[in-house]
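Each record in this resource describes a single protein on a pair of labelled lines. The shape at a given residue is found from the number at the same position. The record below illustrates this layout:

***
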Amino acid sequence: MAKVKVLLVDDDALVRAGLQLILSSAADLVVVGEVDDGARAVAAVREHQPDVVLMDIRMAEMDGITATAALRRLDSPPQVIVLTTFQADEQVMSALRAGASGFLVKDTPPADIINAVRLVASGAAIISPSVTRTLLSHFGDGPGSERRRVAAQRLAALTDREREVAAAIGSGASNAEVATALFMSEATVKAHVSRLFAKLDASNRVQIAIVVHDADQS
């Protein structure tokens, strides 16, 4: 079975060394490279073709938010997990909007870091929509009228059923939970989710939840 390839992007050599040690303890994961700034992340991804990138947010030359957005624009983008010192971090929301699949605080237990990489590599998001909403409400400035208008416009382009699925995802439901709540098969739910990614220009479930949240703001 092919190993999950991971690229480390962090300007702290000790953090990179710690992550390297943690990830190398898992037989199904392999660190294929590391760079010390977001500015070098795109070239490193093109060279190493990682499945997952662990991305620091605060770096001197190019921050992790800008680098995440650049990576997500690639033809075959890797999944991105952003690393942060504080969970309630304003920049975490910016990184999620840029396309990150989730975030980890830097003192996350090693087993949880390994599990997060596995989950993201499989296409899952590692932050629940409820945490997304908590982050949004924590900063309290709302999405603004323009973002609210755009979000509502994007949801209006969906079918009624797609809006129901999007709302369920926004509440934190898994595919199995959506299937039960809306009386459909998981295969049908997966098909709807795939269409939501395309129609909402979302790269993961977190971004669907953010659109739903933005459109609901009063």
Notes: The mean pLDDT is 86. The radius of gyration is 17 Å.
